[in-house]
Amino acid sequence: MNRNIESVPATEALARARGNPYRRYPSPERGGERLYPLASPTARPGFEIGPDDTIFAIGSCFARNVERALEKTGRRVISREFDLGPIGDSLGDAANFFNKYSIHSVLNELEWALERDTFPGAAILYEAGGGPFGDAQLGMARLDFSVEEILDFRHRYLDAMAQVVEADVIIVTLGYVETWYDRQLGLYLNVAPPTTAVKAEPERFEFRVLSHADVLDGLERLETLLARHRRKPLKMLLTVSPVPLLATFRDMDVLVANAYSKSVQRAAIEEFVTGRDGVDYFPSYEFVTLSNPAIAWSRGDYRHVSPDLVARIMADVLDRYVGGTAPGMTLEALLSSMRMLARLEDHAGLRALAAQHRALTDGSIDALMLEATAARRMGDLEEAWDVLTRAAALAPGRADPLERLITLCRPLRRRDTALTLRDRHVREFPEREAFRDKLGWL
Predict the structure, then answer these.
(1) Per-residue confidence at 324, pLDDT binned at 50, 70, 90?
(2) Could you tell me which residues come within 8 angstroms of residue 352 by beta carbon, excluding any fewer than 6 positions away?
(3) How many CB atoms lie within 10 A of CB 200?
(4) Where are the beta strands (DSSP E) in 282-323?
(5) Phi and psi of 76, rounded to 5°?
(6) Is the C or the N end of the chain the one with fewer CB within 10 Å?
(7) Is the distance from CB of 422 to CB of 406 less than 8 angstroms?
(8) What pTM does this model have?
């Protein structure tokens, strides 16, 4: 059986290759800046996100990063608009009950939300040996409430999920393919069932690893479900979470298991989006995993994506999708990229980036301060002085540009200028005596 995802005449393939500026893999001599230190894979938008479009994000923990980043841009993210009552308030975000780690977990919640009679109710609750209940669809949340209170909370949660039909844009982030299955309910779980439940009914649960066909089938079922209930045209952006497996239940190295988990989902999405209007893949996974690890990860654990890189990815999404604008650089993307280069101590790269986007840099006090620091670290004191002068003029209400100018006077041997600037500092920032007390060299 022919399972090619694409088949075109040779002449068309050759013509596409000639017109594709991103055809060749980057090398140090050619296009290397697209890969290191910050990978910048290109995606061609298949639809636009209007300025008033609402957004619904669902999926693994990376979807929460997507939501927060989009909210910061002023977009309305309706998957963050909910009233979960006392239980929801008590759980907060710490329990991660919003995260859906596999395509089946996404399907479960949306199907129950849109076709409420399919919701199993109390059957999905597992008793934890006389302690709180566990709901393996809600991450690691432990529910120390009555069944009636939990079901009220559960329906509030499904009401929030049902807003997917109102969203203009749906973003789905797939996490992994190592799943757990409840044979009694005929249901894939979001996380492992409680060990007490497994001990009580050892034949009830199975560990399953999804195949390419499993993931593709789940995506097709998701599309069918949404088409059945939505009246708006489908605009869906699919991603694969770059966050790796914490651990594996397979008898193999977690590095190998994680490579399979990510690649099989990436492959299924590629087949799913090919030839479908209004459905795109965005390479957030590639943005992270191809970048220099020193800037890709935060917390020093190789798993959580740096907030600056998340901001850079989301800025790229908006730049490409909002209003059909051509790819470029936004201020948020510029600042996040500059901060990452600063962490790498790539001062030359930071200064080159600032110069490349001079209009954006000169309009941002934060960008100018980063550029000034890079110039000083490279020993270019005159350039640092010029940049700080522009920063002080741009933000006269901020003390730090002026203070750094005063400090810079010492290696530049500009004592008279420093005295003049110190007098200005006294007038404009009288409360900053602690800084002036350090100027004994004057």
Answers:
(1) very low
(2) none
(3) 12
(4) 297-298, 304-305
(5) -90, 115
(6) N
(7) yes
(8) 0.82
CA distance 201 to 77: 41
Predicted local distance difference test score (pLDDT) of residue 237: 94
**Does residue 422 have a pLDDT over 60?**
yes
- The arithmetic mean of pLDDT across residues 354-381, rounded, is 95
| Residue type at 178 in one-letter notation | E
| Contacts of the segment 181-184: beta carbons below 8 A, 24+ positions apart | 181/205, 181/206, 181/207, 181/208, 182/136
Asked if residue 287 lies in contact with residue 262, where contact means CB atoms within 8 angstroms, the answer is no
Closest CA to 264 of 171, 173, 172, 176: 176
d(CA 417, CA 346): 31
Domain ranges of the chain: 330-442
Provide the pLDDT for residue 376: 96
Name the strands in the sheet holding 169-174, side by side, starting at the edge strand that comes first in the sequence: 76-77, 54-59, 169-174, 236-240, 279-281
The type of residue at 127 is E
Cα–Cα dist 317/168, whole Å:
15
If you average pLDDT over residues 120-140, what whole number do you get? 82
Greater confidence, 111 or 40?
111
**Cα–Cα distance measured from residue 73 to residue 318, given in angstroms and rounded to the nearest whole number:** 9
Q: Which long-range contacts (CB under 8 A, 24 or more apart) does 391-400 make?
A: 391/365, 394/362, 394/363, 394/364, 394/365, 394/368, 395/365, 396/428, 398/365, 399/425, 399/428, 399/429, 399/432, 399/435, 400/369
Number of residues written out for the chain: 442
CB 435, CB 425: distance < 8 Å: yes
Q: How far apart are the first and last CA of the chain?
A: 83
Distance (Å, whole) CA 308 – CA 60? 19
Instruction: List the structure tokens of 161.
Output: 């999920």
Per-residue pLDDT at 98: 83
Mean pLDDT on 80-94: 79
Contacts of 78 (CB under 8 A, 6+ apart): 54, 55, 56, 163, 166, 167
Stretch 304-333: mean pLDDT, rounded?
Answer: 74
Pick the CATH number of 330-442 from 3.30.450.20, 3.40.1190.10, 1.25.40.10, 3.40.50.970: 1.25.40.10
C-alpha to C-alpha distance for 332 and 314, rounded to whole angstroms: 9
Using CA atoms, how far residue 189 sits from 24, 128, 164, 274, 349, in Å, is 41, 16, 21, 29, 46
Note the pLDDT tens digit of each residue in 385-413: 999 999 999 999 999 999 999 999 999 99
